[in-house]
Records
---
Amino acid sequence: MKIRTGCSGFYYRHWKEVFYPVDLKPAQWFTFYCEYFKTIELNVTFYKFPTAKMLSAWYNKSPKDFLFIVKAPRLITHYKKFTDCTPEISDFYDACGNGLQEKLGCLLFQFPPSFKYTEQTLDLVLNNLKPEFNNVIEFRDISWWKQDVYEAFKANNITFCSVSHPTMPDDFIVTAPRVYIRLHGSPRLFHSSYPADYLRNLHEKLISFKTAEQAYVIFNNTAGTAGILNAQEFENLI
């Protein structure tokens, strides 16, 4: 299995002196980040709808073997929740495909806690995704952790996002050739650091999966310096 480690975002001033050298200008932070990691989760696209031009700029700044994960805009996942937003979803796919080309790793759709499992909401997810892309779905309500969802995702080559989150199950679910794990910090959301034995166990578990070819391990415990330090430690295990 090929494992890629990264963080949700990179532009954090509190990483200065801990990760970024004190004399390094913010404009150089992304280039520096790329020296250590081969992927990043673009969280900015959750707040600002991406364009091909915007993503092409990221493409040009990144190394040849770098892969991007693009988080879907909240307009799609949180405001409209996949209802009556076919044009917006199509525009999102087009921007990502045209802007990032072969450097597009995955598209991450993170739904809010209010988006609960029903047969109808599962159909919304399945019917709105374009199967030619690597789609990752993250849920924030426990109702989605069920076998019917896993089987539907397997049948449609959709990755069920596994999470480390204070209120969500920490089971690792494999529904596609790609495994995607978001570590949000637990017990304190976005803040808690993961101990060395947790990271070692995670690495061992990943390499034991026989049905997956690739894994993305993304640290979102970035409110402090825990995320970047954990990401470096996990990358060293690889």
Note: The longest helix spans residues 86-100.
---
Amino acid sequence: MKTPEAETSPSEELRPASGRSTVEAVYQALKGDIISGTRHPGELLRIDRMSRTYGVGPTPLRETLQRLTAESLVIARDGRGFQVAPLTIEEFEDLNIARTAVELAALRDSIEHGTDIWESRIVAAGYILEKCDSKMLSDTSPDVDRWEAANSDFHAALLSACRSTWLLRIQQDLASKSDRYRRAAVMSADRNYYENVAREHKELREAALGRDAQTGCRILATHYDRTVRTFARFVRQQTEAQKRG
């Protein structure tokens, strides 16, 4: 995959909300830019340039970069600065193994203990996602950001009745690390991918509301594996294109 050094970011100069530190503001902004792909995989993150782009001093930037390094979203280059972590098939496959195992456990517990309020969350989030799925299929320039938000809300609703705080905490961390892989897959996917994903969303909703944990878990595992395979195909196509010159 390409690793250009971006000159600018669309992020505006940071203006922390009341009670929110500059470090937290720049952390959220830079993490969001990495996950969205605004900051490209492999991109060098120079303190001086980043300070101008994000409108903050070097100290909060260094703290942010160290924090993102601990989260494996940024790599420290042995005293030579930082760069955005690359996207690799191997890491996404590994992330997906862990994420799927955690989410299947959380989904089973959520389906078993979900209340009427939990069901209403799924219905509401599923309705919004269904509209976004339809737009992804029909629009020539779909709103990927809106789809990403709706997709995240729907999957969060499915798991929201899980009683384990630790399961959900680990799930959220793994989901966050998977987000930029999914976005790369979605941006490169064909119509067949969108059709299957939309169908699986409906099936997940029906399985959850029908309290069918076995079917829901089977669909969820297939759903996530589809995105891994789509991303892997994209990377291999890019590699072959680069070889051809």
Note: The radius of gyration is 19 Å.
---
Amino acid sequence: MNNLDVIQHTSADYLGLMEDHLEGRRIRFRYIRPFTEKGRIPPPAECGDGLILLGGGPWGTAGARDLPSLAEEIELTRAFLALNRPIIGIGLGTQILCLAAGGGSQAAPLTFEVGQARRVRDDALNGFLPEIVPHVSYMRDRPILPQGADTLAADDHGQPAIFQVGDKAFGFTGHPGFKPAMAEDLIMEFEEGPADPVPALEKLRLSMHAIEDALVPMMTGLVQVTGLMQVSRRISITLENK
């Protein structure tokens, strides 16, 4: 069984619908919460086989309201990149991934948008990325992709929505498993929120079936290209040969 470390930046933003897909494949994950009283970013030696960097609500990386654990998370992500371990950045996590890989981030206001991402490469996620997928973004600031990164899908503004860095690192500026309750909790948790979130919330509720349907092939492709089940397969083969 592979084990993932999931860095959470606020209690409201978690894996959402992605949890069921990981559990169904027997991929274990643990949440790391540096924002809690005794929370911390672990060193690479204490981490598992892969890393997921979640969103952060109003937290950003470009100076207006920087994530308190930003420096430590960039360092950890660099270590995972050097070890060629799987990394998935979501929302704020895409900015951390880009900063760790030699790219950057740019200042942008906190926004909550529900739109679409359009595939720009037919082979994206081993060909499992649908041509059009829902794109739900709740984020401050924007990632600047490092040199050599590949854009796999673009959002309604023509900006990278899904991208790949190296062999096993992927960024999703929108959360592929977002739920309406997550947006509601983010709005309630912080004193700072997006302007007039009601239309986006209504649009999100109407998009849930499409989000669920798109996540099925996306997770299949993502697990394949990151190799998140390879250790489990090797163990199974070894046991069968004994």
Note: The domain at 3-241 is CATH 3.40.50.880 (Rossmann fold).
